[in-house]
Design brief:
By secondary structure, the protein is α/β, with parallel strands linked by helices. It contains 14 helices and nine strands. The chain has two domains: about 250 residues, Metal-dependent hydrolases (TIM Barrel), CATH 3.20.20; about 35 residues. Helix content is about 40%, strand content about 10%. The chain is globular. The structure holds zinc ion (ZN).
């Protein structure tokens, strides 16, 4: 997510919401957008609300998302990302910090109840949209913030997905963002996925290592999401997904929610951004200043048009090698009883 904080993160899903009798093809893209329930599955505004005391009800010049922009853009539901930066907090404080972020967003929701309302289910989102409220949902980014056994409390707070890793490995498995990128799903990870599925929390495969992706999607019984990843066919970077991965998510019945961040659409931009981070890290700056320094440098990179997303179908750039070719849908052969038994076992 380091790079994602510079360029906006958007995993956007459109959900049909009772369009009028005209057929979808007769609708303009603007009509379709307005009639659909538009869901963004990942926003990093949580940390600005929590740590900078940003008033989300007012237009914020240096943010790409706030309540007025959501209204203007026809955004109906937003997943707020609960993310504890390992550079900001010591491991023993991760969980408490995550709860602090939930509290800050819940307070923002309460303070703006005429505009935004907490949603825990798809039915809540539809009901909120009907009464003209934006829905706020939560996803936890990175299981490093989670202690085994904490899933139920996270769910209670509102978490509806857990990104199995952030850019660092978690007890669940390896990340695409560090030296653990060859590591797959651990025994602890299997138990956490069991518990998440029992509770009704989605498995999010954005940020995971390739082996963890394949292990998780073979293990999961329920649909998974990638809350903010794009395609390696478009930009061959580890945070994006190969065609085989995209097809595997489709077979699983899940969803890949497109990331509009420039470094997800263009490999050169991603390389420029990485170089900016590497340079800035040598300066020994405090976190906020480090982030601003990178943001300023990245803002001078050649812009990447969003139209790159639709150009993908027209051009066939580099073909990334996929070390994990697709397999027939593989499911665990366990019985319901096995699963119940495993779910009862305490996490190690
Ligand atoms: Zn992220």
């Amino acid at each position: 997510m380091t790079g994602l904080r510079v360029a906006v993160v958007c995993g956007t899903v459109l959900v049909a919401a009772g369009c009028p009798s005209r057929s979808a093809t007769a609708l303009s893209h603007r009509d379709l957008h307005r009639h659909a329930i538009v869901v963004d599955t990942h926003s990093d505004c949580t940390q600005r609300i929590t740590y900078d005391g940003v008033d989300f009800a007012k237009p914020q010049a240096d943010m790409q998302l706030d309540l007025p922009k959501m209204r203007a853009g026809g955004l109906d539901a937003q997943f707020f990302s609960i993310f504890v930066g390992p550079w900001r907090t010591k491991p023993e404080g991760y969980y408490v910090e995550a709860l602090r972020q939930f509290d800050a967003v819940h307070a923002m929701i309460r303070a703006n109840s005429g505009t935004i309302a907490w949603a825990r289910t798809a039915a809540d989102v539809r009901a909120n949209a009907k009464r003209g409220r934006i829905s706020a949902l939560f996803g936890v980014e990175g299981a490093h913030a989670l202690l085994p056994g904490d899933e139920a409390e996270m769910l209670e707070q509102g978490a509806r997905y857990l990104t199995l890793t952030w850019s660092v490995a978690s007890p669940i498995g390896g990340s695409s963002g560090d030296d653990s990128d060859g590591r797959g799903l651990t025994d602890v990870g299997r138990r956490i996925i069991d518990e998440m599925e029992r509770l009704g929390m989605m498995v999010d495969v954005s940020h995971v290592s390739d082996p963890l992706f394949w292990d998780a999607i073979r293990y999961a019984r329920k649909p998974v999401i990638a809350s903010h990843s794009s395609a390696r066919e478009l930009a061959n970077v580890p945070r994006n997904m190969t065609d085989a991965m995209l097809k595997a998510v489709a077979r699983n019945g899940g969803a890949v929610c497109v990331n509009f961040g420039s470094s997800f659409l263009d490999r050169d931009f991603a390389a420029g951004e990485q170089a900016a981070w590497a340079r800035a890290r040598t300066l020994g700056l405090p976190p906020q200043e480090l982030w601003r320094t990178v943001r300023d440098e990245v803002s001078r990179l050649p812009p990447v048009p969003l139209s790159r997303l639709v150009e993908l179908g027209r051009r066939r750039p580099e073909k990334p090698a996929d070390p994990h070719p697709p397999e027939p849908r593989a499911r665990r052969g366990r019985t319901t009883k096995d699963r119940q038994e495993q779910a009862r076992r305490p996490h190690p």
